[in-house]
Design a protein that fits this description.
Keywords: DNA-binding, Transcription, Transcription regulation. GO terms for molecular function: DNA-binding transcription factor activity; sequence-specific DNA binding. It comes from Harryflintia acetispora. This is AraC family transcriptional regulator. There is one protein chain. By secondary structure, the chain is an alpha+beta fold. The protein folds into two domains: 163 residues, Sandwich (Jelly Rolls); 117 residues, Homeodomain-like (Arc Repressor Mutant, subunit A), CATH 1.10.10.60. The protein is 39% helix and 18% strand. It has a six-stranded antiparallel beta sheet with strand order 1-2-8-3-6-9. A three-stranded antiparallel beta sheet has the order 5-4-7, with no helix packed on it. Strand 4 and strand 5 form a beta hairpin. The protein is globular, with a radius of gyration of 20 Å. 37% of the residues are buried.
């Protein structure tokens, strides 16, 4: 995977160019992600849904949603990607009481469809905004922040228009075209885990739900996702816990229970294993971020990209 781009204005903008039999590890991050396919085609797993995409398609991934992108049958594809943090973008909002992220994109609904297919007219506008954003990234004059703010606002409104008319009842599991390499049992297992992560889950129980042998599921799951079934369950639970720690005042013991941990000690162990800090430290770190007038340096605070590589520490 080739990523071209820089970290500026409190969010990241880059172009993903992927070739060959490339497989992205499952990941989650605190930022929102906007993915616009430029060329080629592939599949995107987000939360408990699967989408096929081709040139001109958009995907909007919300904070802390597990996701994984994969090419179709080894075909190359390229995509514009923007990663942005809502709190940082608040500094750029055009009006005091107006959010830069339209409500159509932030409502936490289990029926939310992350995928939108653009029509020629909206495609021209979206590509125009993306190209202008790319150009402004290379500018160093005093007006760049204002221009980027306006472009981001216009882009997000255009995206919100598309998603507002999407069918929220889209199928959780897409029909895979011939030649797709993602195992259906793995897709079904990932969906089942995402829908039931608050319950007590075992490899045998999940395998029974998707009608395969536990050994087969264990082998194919690791091959396709880069993680064991137990690791994926842990990731799903901790991604939910992060959101609750940031967005609520619930005690840690209650959050542990809500995320599938009956033993708070096990929750602390799992959280620290993935995040390299305790739940309480994570909550304090997030809430003590100070947003000033500068859009660079330490202001990035929480806006970090957590890529959970197999058998590697969390990248911060």
């Amino acid at each position: 995977m080739n990523q071209l781009g820089i970290d500026k204005y409190g969010f990241r903008f880059f172009v993903n160019r992927n070739e060959g039999d490339w497989k992205m590890p499952v990941e989650f991050h605190s930022e929102y992600e906007l993915f616009y396919a430029l060329t080629g085609r592939g599949f995107y797993f987000v939360a408990n849904r699967y989408y096929s995409f081709e040139a001109g398609d958009l995907l909007f991934i919300r904070s802390d949603e597990l996701h994984k992108c994969q090419s179709f049958n080894g075909e190359p594809f390229a995509a514009f990607v923007i990663l942005f943090d809502e709190k940082i973008l608040e500094l750029m909002r055009p009006c005091e009481n107006e959010s830069l992220i339209p409500p159509a994109l932030t409502v936490q609904s289990s029926g939310f469809c992350h995928h939108a297919r653009t029509l020629p007219e909206s495609r021209r506008r979206i590509v125009g905004y993306l190209e202008r954003l790319r150009d402004e990234y290379s500018m160093e004059d005093s007006h760049s922040v204002e221009i980027v703010s306006c472009l981001m606002h216009a882009l997000l409104i255009e995206v919100a228009r598309l998603f507002a008319v999407q069918d929220s009842g889209a199928s959780d599991v897409i029909e895979l075209p011939r030649g797709a390499k993602f195992r259906r049992a793995v897709m079904s297992a990932m969906s089942y885990i995402n829908a039931n992560y608050t319950d007590a889950l075992t490899l045998g129980g999940i395998a029974a739900q998707v009608f395969v042998n536990p050994s087969y599921l264990s082998r194919e799951f690791k091959k396709e996702t880069g993680y064991s079934v137990n690791r994926f369950i842990m990731m799903r639970r901790i991604s939910a816990a992060r959101s609750l720690l940031r967005d609520s005042d619930r005690p840690v013991t209650e959050i542990a229970s809500l995320c599938g941990y009956n033993n708070v000690t096990n929750f602390h162990w799992a959280f620290k294993k993935l995040m390299d800090m305790s739940p309480n430290t994570y909550r304090r770190q997030f809430r003590h971020i100070t947003y000033g007038t500068s859009l660079e340096g330490d202001l990035l605070g929480e806006a970090r990209h957590y890529v959970l590589e197999p058998q590697a520490p969390v990248i911060k």
